[in-house]
Design goal:
Number of domains: 1
Bound molecules: nickel (II) ion
Helix content: 40-55%
Number of strands: 8
CATH topology: TIM Barrel
Strand content: 15-25%
Radius of gyration: 17 Å
Amino acid sequence: MLFDTHVHLNAHQYKEDVNEVIKRAKNEGISTMVVVGFDEETIKGALSLAEEHEFIYAAVGWHPVDAIDFNETHLTWLEELSNHPKVVALGEMGLDYHWDKSPREVQKEVFRQQIRLARKVQLPIIIHNREASQDIVTILQEEKAEEVGGIMHCFGGSLDIAKQCMAMNFYISFGGPVTFKNAKKPKEVAKEIPLDRLLIETDCPYLAPHPYRGKRNEPAYVKLVAEQIAELRGMTVEEIANITTENGKKLFGIY
Ligand code: NI
């Protein structure tokens, strides 16, 4: 039993074979997954997959890279979608200082608006962080994100940042990078954080774990992430699978 908490089966990379990818995930023991939408098209894709498959849930939000395109209508739409029975979180949202399509001030404002919405509708949030850890922590604190909590997705920050996020009811989720040989920091954090804060994901089609690094990723590979964390912590893969599945269900309110 594995829970892949962050997939983009709504991405164009799966246009040809999404049903086979889903079948492979089931065969590998993936019992639950959350398809994450990050703009108009992918939000619609996440919803239709969640409606079609019992074991698939959806998260809806606006990516910081595209913050410049976000408007009031989108915010209202997200609020409506929060009532959808398969929508379990808002996101992904956050800050991305790697790409410069959207100015940082615009990203921050769109991030704040989505946190406020999450508090209003009482859903957890999924955070995308690229080279912006300190500003993310500050905004989460200022906007009282601890009221809803959520996930630091594909975490690559320090143990200190992880602790600050856990103090605000966030879970720390690890993806493919934790399996990379040179990934010292993610390995260290994955080893140290409390088990009741641990989640796993693929973020597919991106960031495929070793030995598929550089190839298209898919949910079936989340097992490799679980195996890596089990090895780091001296536990069995079944233990890590069960713990992370229970954590995910609790956070998203899936029973
Ligand atoms: Ni993502």
